Amino acid sequence: MTTMRLDDLRQYSDVLRSRHGKAVTVRFVEPRDAEALQSYFRSLSTRSRYSRFLGAASELPPSELEHFIHVGEADRFSVVATMLVDGRETIVGEARYAFDSAAASIELGLSIDDRWQGHGIGAALLKNLECRAASLGAERVFGDTLRSNEAMIALARKAGYAFTNTPGDWRLTRFLKQIQKRIKVEPQEIPCAGWRLTAVSPSAMSSLAV
Known about the structure:
The chain is built from 8 helices and 8 strands. By secondary structure, the chain is α+β, with helices and mostly antiparallel strands. The protein has an 8-stranded mixed β-sheet with strand order 1-2-3-4-5-6-8-7, with helices on both faces. The longest helix has 15 residues, at about 120-135. It is globular.
């Protein structure tokens, strides 16, 4: 189990752009985000929460919230997408991804605040997650979503994902994509926080563990 030193990781954030050019910051979740993250999930529509949790839930269970706010445990990572709204940092989306080194794959899940859906934030975040996956050495990205989750299915299809049945659960469909692994990346070409982390040294990720 690894836990990242947040003092080291705060510098590894990415600035994406919404469809209308607004800045969207993607950064690792910190323990201080617990209340804001829980408020974010509570503010989602019932349908959006159902789609994200694959079932009925009004908020993250306390045990799951603990997992969300501790980055890197068991090679699981959580990020939030934030924007300045009325001068305050506001969570407009989130994602969680898990790295399986044996399978060279990343499993991911994400959500976007209902008020900010349709602004291209989901597409930008998904592309960013693919970059982070490649930086960890993953060759495949996949996720499971409800067959009724038309928004996630449309997002994945537009991003070039293929679809197959989810093993053991007829309610779900699996979206998956083979990603191009970049062996050598020049410093000026590093496209996301994951590459900046691994560019520090070949053992950068393990050296950040406590």
